[in-house]
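Entry 14. Ran structure prediction on the chain below.
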Amino acid sequence: MTAPNTPNITHELMCGATAGVAVDLGLYPLDTLKTRLQSKQGFRAAGGFRNLYRGMSSVAIGSAPGSAIFFVSYRQAQKMGNNSILSDILAACFGEMCACLVRVPTELLKQRIQASNGKLKLSSAIREIRQTNGFFGFYRGFTSTIVREIPFAFIEYPLWEAMKRSFHQKMDRHASPIEGAAFGSLAGLTAAALTTPLDVAKTRIMLNRATYTPRILETLFEIHREGGVRALFSGIVPRMCWMSIGGFVFFGAYETAKYTLSLPIEF
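Output, structure tokens:
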């Protein structure tokens, strides 16, 4: 079986959007549990196991464009490199920075609603942010998201690419979509475990409603003072499960869409 042709930008947009929607909507309850475990008010006060799909509308709006922008930026940046691990790392970091322009407002609204114990709706969350901080309030936590996403991308995407290259060298064929999904699952699991403290800090910053935006190091130290190392890794189990299953779904959907779109049309 021959490998699929290299997709163009339109194909990358479609593949990225498909992958993003598949994982964000399919695994939303795990993300809600993780957010509530990381919230300062505590798991039960944030909603516990109730209303696990609360806030999904914001994800439905931003998931497809965010993932599409990432993969277009990532693949275009890769083409400028030399097919090495370093070029994968730089391309992944660039892709995440571009995607965060869409991802941060979506993530902010989603987490505010997830941790509101069912008291906040999407329209109310938008109004509250706009009245408190104006337009730039929707980008609260932008820096902390970038600080989390870059190390995550630094680990996940180069590891995924490296496993696929190694597979190709050993097996003398390209990985199938299901094999690519398995590599993505392992890469996501590894990256999730190592970057959990940054994710906890990002969650705390986004849930903070004060006019002053806390800084990352300040937030990390505060979390450590409250509960030590254990607090820094709050929500690690659902996060690892989410990223492991999510990596499988995300990369599987991406590889499947890429392969399908690259096949010649048969009549």
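The domain at 9-262 is CATH 1.50.40.10 (Mitochondrial carrier fold). Will compare against last week's run tomorrow.
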